[in-house]
Structure formats: C-alpha cells, structure tokens
Amino acid sequence: MSDTHTTSGGKTSVWTKHQVFEKNSIFLLIGILVMISIGGLVEIVPLFYLKSTIEKVEGVRPLTPLELAGRNIYVREGCYNCHSQMIRPLRDEVERYGHYSLAAESMYDHPFQWGSKRTGPDIARVGGKYSDDWHRDHLRNPRSVVPASIMPSYPWLETTALDTSHIDMDMRVLAIEGVPYTKEMIESAASDVKTQGAAEDSLTAPFLKRYPKAITRESGGVQGRLTEADALIAYLQQLGTQVDFKLYDDKANIR
Amino acid sequence: MEQKTSAPSGHANGSADPSAPAQSGVGTTGHSWDGIEELNNPLPRWWLWTFYACIVWAVGYWFVYPAIPLVSSYTKGFLGWQSRAQIEVDMAELKAMRSGMTTKIEATELADIEKNPELLSFARAQGSAAFAVNCAPCHGAGAQGFKGYPNLNDDDWIWGGKAEDILTTIKHGVRWEQDSNTRSGVMPSFGRDGILNRKEIATVADYVLSLSGLAVDKGADLAAGKTLYAANCAACHGDAGAGNQEMGAPNLSDKVWLYGSDKAAIMERITLGGGGVMPAWSNRLDAATMKSLAVYVHTLGGGK
Question: Which of B126, B81, B85, B90 is nearest to B105 (CA)?
C-alpha cells in the first residue's frame, strides 16, 4: 500500500499522506492506540449498559470471606494461567464439564477468572466434584493422585496460616465495584472466616443467612488456625455450584 | 532508523549500482541504507485480493450474525443465530442420536443389561468414558486405587459389590454431607479423642495384623489385643474382623488394605479414625450414565 514519492501522481495522494504514519513512530503509536481503543470500546462498553448481557438467575451470592481469601490465593498463585473458568456453549464442553457458564455466575468476580488457556481442565464447575481431602492431596502433590499430572505442587499452602487481616478491606473495595457486600457482612468478615472453617456453632445460622447455602466444614488447619489451603479449597468447592440448573430456565435466557 | 543519502555512492563492493532500477525494471523507494536501496515491488495480486475478500466477508458477517451493539440491544443478524439456541439444538441432536440406547439402559435392570451383549458393550463404553473424566482422578485410570481411594478391580468391597450396591454408592456418594442418603459410618478417633492410649493402640494393632496372618512383633500381647478388639472394634468390624458393609467398616481379616498394611499405617488409622469421602454424582450425571458406570465397575472383575 505504500506507494511513494518516487512514483508520484494524483491518484496516489492518499497513500502519500499515509506516509506520515509510516515515517513517524510516535504518530504510528498514537494511531494504533486510537484504533485499538475504538475496537475495545465498541466491544466492552455495551456490556456495561446492555441489560441483556447478564441473565436473571436465582442463587448467585457474593463469595464468603473465606472463599474470597481463597480466591485471592488462586490469583496470587497464578492458577488462571493453566485453568479457565468458562464453559463455552459448545457440545464437547457441555458434555465434559456440565452446563455452560452463565454471565451471572461471574458477575461478582472482579476481575473475572475466565482465563484463556487450558493446560489443565476448565474448573468452572469443579465444586463438589472431589472431596476436600482429594484437593488437599492434589494441591500438596498432584502426582500423588493423578500420576501423569503436570500441575505444579503447592505444598506450602497447607502449612501457611491464612492471613485474613485485610479481608474486610478487600470486601470494601469490591463493594465499591458493585458487589453487594453489606456493612454487616464486612464487619463480621473476620469471624465469618472462622465460622465457615469450623464445625457448626452458634454463629453458623447468622452466617448462613448472610451467605445462603455456603458450606461450613471442620477444616484441618495448622494448630487450630486455618491455612491457605483451607481457604483455597473452600473457594474451589463452591465453583459453579450456586445456580441450581434443575430450576434454571435455558429457553428464557437465550440471547 | 532509516538514514537518507541523496544518492548511492559507489562503494568498493559496488553493491549500490545506480543502474539497479534499469536491471530489474522496478523503481526504488528512494530509501537507501548504507548504499543499499529498496525496490518498490507491488504486493502480490493473490495477497491483495485475499485481503479485499476478507473485508467483504467481514461486512457480510456483520449483517448475517449478531454484531453491533446499539443503545438497548444489538443487531441480531439476518440468520437469527444465537450460541445458546445453537447449543440446545446440538445437545438435542446428541440426545436423539443416543436415545435408542440410553432409553434402553434407563429401562433395563442392571442384571439384565449385563446379560444383553449389545447393551453391555454400550454401557461399558459409556461407563469407561465417564470413569476417565469423573472417577479416575481418585480411583486411578485403571481403577486400581490409591491410599485412601479403594481399588475397584478386586472383589473386596467396603460398601458392597453387587451392581445395585455400586449404583447406590455412585448416586449418593460416601460420607458426602450434602446428600441426605449418602453412605455413612465413621470410625471413632481412638487416639485423638483419648479413648485408647498409645500402648493400647499398638497392642490392638498387633492383633489386627494377626487377623490376616501378617507378621507381628515378637513380644506382642495378642490376648490383650483380642480383649481390646472385642471391646472397641468388634461392633463395627465383626468378631473375626470380617467387616460390615452396612457401615462401611472394611474387612480386616483379608490382605486388602485401604490405608496400608504396616503397623504404622494401622496405628495411624486407629489414632485418627474417620473415613474417606466420595462425592455424590446424582446431581452431576444423568441416570443412564450412572447405570453405565455401575455396570462398568461391576464388570471390572470383582463384581459380586
């Protein structure tokens, strides 16, 4: 396309003007930025205002503080580099992983963990597929349960005590981003972490009122303290379990 | 960056020959780097036409498929295509394709499936595929098991080895609290909860070893072990250690061990107690797939 002054003539004048970009790297850079921004804006901005992008679904709740702490560890360890959380509406994926992912299922995820690479399988619906013990074994050393696994070992997770000193701040930031964390939820964050990681006690009922259907469990822990593995497992075990697909109406949400 | 010189100056190697355009018949761009000039060849025709064709295709795509966001909706495209409508069609097609067999599997008793060669081979194929995706991470690719996850090839069953028992285990899981019909029964934590002290645990462990004829330590007090066993263990594991499938207490008198056969492993079991957990599958898998899995596991070799 770059005709030049050597073959000058009226009909090539547009291409001649294009040389401004070709010969000036700053202009070229600005030009590229403008073009990519237009593409990005057209693709992304409508998702914020089009009501039809997120379907109305029962059951999706914000993560509990313990699950949120687990999610932070998931992000910190870069699990998203090998695992997607996005079951596409394609036959082979639905056959293997279950119902395709709904937008509503990640509406409280900031940033979302859809991922783009599957070195390992998609884990959008891994919740309830394995036992806590299996996850513990698998995180410590994946080869102990899946001999041919190429997933790295994360043995430090079950020996590192969980740091929850910032979890209420995380929730506050997410609330600014639109996650419906109430004042009550944020204030009871630290105690909710303990409640979810313990067998049933008097705090369990109010906790379950805040986070319906969350699973509380006696977690292993190190000397009575919850570990990073406990939090990560609590996060993994709720993935894809919040929507009851026996009640969900596929036809009503075709869009 | 490019460096302009007004005219190529003849260097020793003579690479910048001012007559180059004449030789190739193509003009130069006028750029010159260290005397090397750039010919101004047009893009190949095929490339250019492919490029234009792509532009035309893209414009067509905008009209045919959902494409451009508007104020309250988006352009739906002439075809009315939607990925979520399409997957419904695809899944319905798949279901129709398999329906002949799956409805038969659903309607047939497990025992009768195994008697019918056609159904059996379908169920085993479907079961083996579902096993690889859902069960192999715990039970192993060949169902050989790992420590804590039972081998499903042998004829030693914790919860029963009839096809119906296996189907129940698959449907409701083992100690899976979210399923109210799950198989349950846990061993007490004799050590952790202080029911037995360390010495007593070692003594009863020796007796457990002797039940299956394994070697025991020289000075082992088997009589004391037997008394301890009768008082603490027989209710679940049976007087002779034959086990109890009702509560998932394994047979201790055979040579098949879930957690290992050395004394340390047995002492650890008695100390910690508890029990393995397997998820319930009735919310994840459909009825036909679970039946196929039961048939597959039952026919691995150890089915009763």
Answer: B126
B81-84 CB contacts, 8 Å cutoff, 24+ apart: B82/A254, B82/A255, B83/A89, B84/A89, B84/A100, B84/A250, B84/A253, B84/A254, B84/A255
ipTM comes to: 0.80
CATH of B187-272, one of 3.40.50.10490, 1.25.40.10, 1.10.760.10, 1.10.10.10: 1.10.760.10
Please give the Cα distance from A128 to A125 (Å, whole number): 8
pLDDT tens sequence across A3-33? 444 444 445 677 788 888 888 999 999 999 9
Q: What is the distance in angstroms between the Cα of B279 and the nearest Cα belonging to chain A?
A: 6
Query: pLDDT tens across B78-130, in order?
Result: 998 988 899 999 999 998 988 888 999 999 999 999 999 999 999 999 999 99
Which residues of A touch chain B, with CB atoms under 8 Å apart? 1-7, 42, 45-46, 50-52, 89-91, 94-96, 98, 100, 128-134, 137-138, 144-147, 215, 250-251, 253-255
Helix axes A25-49, A13-22, angle to 10 degrees: 90
Angle formed at CA A110 by CA A109 and CA A111, multiple of 5 degrees: 105
Element (H, E) at B70: none
Which residue type is seen at B45?
Answer: R
Cβ contact, residue pair A133, B88, below 8 Å:
no
- Mark whether A185 and A231 lie in a shared domain: yes
The domain B85-169+280-298: what is its CATH number?
1.10.760.10
Q: Is B69 on the interface with A (CB under 8 A)?
A: yes
Helix (H) or strand (E) segment spanning residue B58: helix B45-64
Q: Taking all residues of chain A, what is their mean pLDDT, rounded to a whole number?
A: 89
Across the interface, whether the CB atoms of B84 and A134 are under 8 A apart is answered no
Distance CA(B167)–CA(B98), nearest Å, equals 21
Domain that holds residue A218: 65-253
- State pLDDT tens for residues A85-129: 999 999 999 999 999 999 999 999 999 999 989 999 999 999 999
